[in-house]
Amino acid sequence: MALGMFFVSTTHSLAAYTKTSTDSSQTIPLQGRYESPGKLGSDIISMAVNITPITAELQGNMLFAHFHTDVGAVQVTITDKWGGIVFIEMVNTDMQPTLTIPLMGLPSGSYIITFSGENVELHGKFQI
Predict the structure, then answer these.
(1) Is-contact 86 52, C-beta < 8 A?
(2) Least C-beta-crowded within 10 Å: which of 9, 57, 59, 112?
(3) Range of 44's domain?
């Protein structure tokens, strides 16, 4: 059974999409490093702990990456359990606060999403 859903962020305007699954929203925990530009020494560590520059959320067969702060140009990559790249895109986080990634057509299994840039290197595992 298909359900319709309209997703609107309070900080970013997103287009509507049709959810084709009854799965609920799932936050993908991200690990790695984030260094706030312009900070030195221990400030880098405290900024990394206190700011979440990127979050990733799985909603049905769509993955949403939200860039809460400008971290510059970021390469977003999704790999399968064998390390094969199934998605790759460069994002300018100053101009694009959200990236929508359709996951239709990918087989069920484990995947890793990676965000790589000059000041950020985050990754998280998820299942579809």
Answers:
(1) no
(2) 9
(3) 26-127
Asked whether residue 7 is domain-assigned, the answer is: no
Number of domains in the chain: 1
Q: What are phi and psi of 47, to 5 degrees?
A: -65, -40
Q: Is residue 92 part of a domain?
A: yes
Run of H or E residues at 4: strand 3-5
What residues contact 79, with CB distance under 8 A and at least 6 apart? 85, 86, 111, 112, 114
Kindly report the pTM of this predicted structure: 0.72
The predicted-structure confidence for 64-77, as pLDDT tens digits, reads as follows 999 999 999 999 99
